[in-house]
Structures are given as structure tokens and as C-alpha cells.
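#data-curation
PF: Archiving a pair of folding outputs for the training set. Convention for this channel: one message per protein, sequence first, C-alpha cells after, nothing in between. First:
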Amino acid sequence: MNTNLQLSPREINNAKPNNHMLEKILAIRSSVGDGLSDDELTRLLRTTLLGEAGFAFLSFSDGLVTLTVPEQDLKSWHPEQGWIAPEKETIARAIAEKYELSLYEPVDKTTSFLYPPSGPEAVRHHIELNDRWQAVIVAHPHYLKVRLLGKSPHHRYGWEALTPLTLGPEILQDLSALYRQT
């Protein structure tokens, strides 16, 4: 019998000397198995007071962890034309290279048709780091998403279970450079 199943989330959190939030989330998810929906797992994880490198846990859904970020000055992210600032792009490019990911700068899409902008607004972009199959990291001035579970390069079918991605324990420290105020 797995003794972790008898522990509360705080005890699981404290049972390991590991201080890496993403690894803690994977350990807790592994210990509870598939018995909880993503919503239920999010509620459970919120009781653990998870945080690292200025980020705090917000939710878990479809293998992605969404984190809060330190308050950002949008001018440090977007020059007047709405593209990513060169300083942020340089940091993102270095992170992408370190983790063997591809860098993209997709547009922030607005899905609401009920409240159209009153005038022409600058189109904004965010940072997305992808592997060959999926977005692994989405860095936005208002949030950060990190994929913990995803498609394996060995998957042949869409119905196969998601597997843990190996980003390494330093990923949040590296990503925190994007959110430092200059």
C-alpha cells in the first residue's frame, strides 16, 4: 500500500526535501492517481500553499499548471507596436535554447464579441515555447502556464495517456527572469 495516499497534501509537501513546485505537483498528482478531476486536484493543490521563484499555484488543467506572476509593467513586455520587447525575447530565446524548445510569439486573442474595443487597440503578443507536439510554456504578463503532462514523442495515438515532461528543477528559476522588473 502506498503510504503517500494516507498523507494530507501539506504532509506530502513536507515529506520530501524537494523545494521545486512543479515536481511537488507531479508527486501529489501521482499519489492521488486518476481519482480526482482536474478541478478537484486544483482545489487539493491550493491547500498546499505552493510557490516558487515569485510564482504561485493557480490551477491544474489538461496537464498544464497555471501560475500567478509578480505584477508586471506592460510597457516592459510590449513596446508601442505590441510585439514582445527585445529584452524579453532575448531571455525567452535563451530559455528555449536551454530546454530545446521553439520560440513563438502568438497574438493574444480576444474571444469576446460582446464588448468590442471602442477604438483600434494595439495587438499584443505573448511568449510560447513549444516542443514538436504542443505548447510547453506560455509566458504572458498576467500569468504563466507550464505543461507538466503532455504527449510523448513515442505516442502513436491521440487516446494514449499523457506522460510527465522532463523540464528540470530549474525551469521556474529560469522563467522568473522574464518577470523581473527592469
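PF: Second:
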Amino acid sequence: MSNEQFNELAGRIQGLSDFIMHLTAELEIKELIDGPRLNQAVREFAENRCFEGEHLQAAQRTLSQMAHFLNDARVCRQAHSR
């Protein structure tokens, strides 16, 4: 894979991740989803699923990081709303 192809793929993945994070935050703010429950479900999925292979281990790390980022964003929003 060339650098150009890698950068294209990485950019697309980043864009999708950012979209998912913002969408999740908006749904949580509007109380359409239970953010802490979703966060826990993602963490449990990442911890309990059998991830074999390098790319799946990266997926596991990414899911864990996203759950962590969503939780941090929630804490930040709550602190700003006080």
C-alpha cells in the first residue's frame, strides 16, 4: 500500500469515527440513547469478544478507546452544564 493509499484509508476511518462520536453525543444529549449504558456495552463487547489477528486486535483497541472518549466527553459536558 502506498503512502497516498494509506493516508486516504486513514482519513476515511478518522472521518467515520468522528461522525460516530458526534452522532452518539448528540443522541445522548437529546436523551434518545442511554450513553452510559451504550458505553458499558461497547466496553464489554471489546473486552469479551475473541479478537484474533492483528487487524482485529486494532479493532478491539479502537472500540475501547472510543468508549473511553465518549465517557470523557460526557464528563466534560456535565462539568460545563453546572
